[in-house]
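Hey, I was hoping to borrow your eyes for a little while. For a while now I've been wondering how a particular protein folds. The fold is given in discrete form, as structure tokens running alongside the sequence. Could you read through the record and tell me how the tokens relate to the sequence? Take your time with it, there's no hurry, and the full record follows here:
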Amino acid sequence: MKLLLFLMYLSPVIIQSQENVVYVGTKSNQGNQGIYLLNFERSTGKLTLRNQFIDAKNPSFLAISPDKKTLYAAEENNPGSISALSIDKNTGELTYINAVSSEGAGPCFVTTDRTGKWCFAGNYMSGNMAVLPILSGGGLGKASQIIQHDSAFPGLNKDGKPHIHSINIAANNRDVFVVDLGTDRIMCYKFNHKTGKLVPSKTPHLNAEQGAGPGILLFILNQTMLIALWKLIIL
């Protein structure tokens, strides 16, 4: 089954689509109802509400596993958690599997490695990230590694604390780039998919312009180049 992705970085809504089903993560504590399931009409681009999944608690960013069998939701609470939901291959309906701690506050990003064996959670409020093992059946285990970013290099006009905004894994499944909006840095790691461990790269970080607020990275040109999208810079 082919996977079609629609990404709208208009917080708090993130949209992803599998065939003709679109999953929308919303912040439930702002009056919304969990994860929305919509039908997508490819010929017209029209979206219509099909169902709502309210078991996820304050879900924001969503990610789908490489085998397209599981959806993971960042539950942006304090303390935060990541929930796992199975995807019905015929209907796209969701079934709750489990949820585990994100090991921080306000997780705003979730993704998986390319083997589908590891899940990464980025905690915005506490400025740390966690690596979670993906169990048989798509459920999540407790964190195997937690990395806290340093607050010694705050960006301009911010609270002086790290704020992880996204985790970006290269096509080789080894190079991992973690965007820290709070320190105006892109942290660089090497990932071992056999152990699930991250270690700093030889170049441990890239500095953005102070006050730019790096938010999202995009791989282009067959995964050979990165584009950074700023959230706070004023041109």
The chain has no helices and 19 strands. The domain at 1-143 is CATH 2.130.10.10 (Methylamine Dehydrogenase; Chain H). The radius of gyration is 17 Å. The chain has two domains: 1-143, 149-235.
